[in-house]
């Protein structure tokens, strides 16, 4: 009986995988995600630098009048106008698809 008291009953089974401490090596899908994030970060940095380097004032013709404003505001306004147009086009396409289904 004394011999049975010295040996452990059983080794405890881990509830989680043992590689959780160090992490798992990235798989194929993870590399694709990492690449997209890196490219997005590079694009954002490039865009911000492009905007900041174009701070000189320019004459902008607004059909009715001409104004002298910094080029950065012209670029930002053009970007926002393009984003609104793309959003509206996507909205109209989704709406047409919904109508076609019914």
Question: Would you spell out the secondary-structure blueprint of this structure?
Answer:
Elements: H1 2-6, H2 28-53, E1 57-61, E2 66-70, H3 71-101
Antiparallel strand pairs: 1-2
Describe this structure in words.
- The chain is mostly helical and 102 residues long.
- The chain contains three helices and two strands, in the order ααββα.
- The protein has helices at residues 2-6, 28-53, 71-101; strands spanning 57-61, 66-70.
- Strands 1-2 form a two-stranded antiparallel sheet.
- It is flat.
- The mean pLDDT is 81.
Task: Compose a concise summary of this entry.
This protein is mainly alpha-helical. The chain has 3 helices and 2 strands, in the order H-H-E-E-H.
Distance from first to last alpha carbon: 79 Å
Helix-strand pattern: HHEEH
Q: What radius of gyration results from the CA coordinates?
A: 30 Å
The protein's oligomeric status is single chain
Shape: flat
Strand order of the largest sheet: 1-2
Into which percent range does the helicity of residues fall?
55-70%
Any low-confidence stretches, pLDDT <50, length ≥5? none
Strand content: 5-15%
Q: The biggest beta sheet, please?
A: 2 strands, antiparallel
Structural class by helix and strand composition: mainly alpha
Mean pLDDT: 81
What attributes does this structure have?
102 residues; single chain; mainly alpha; 2 strands; two-stranded antiparallel ribbon
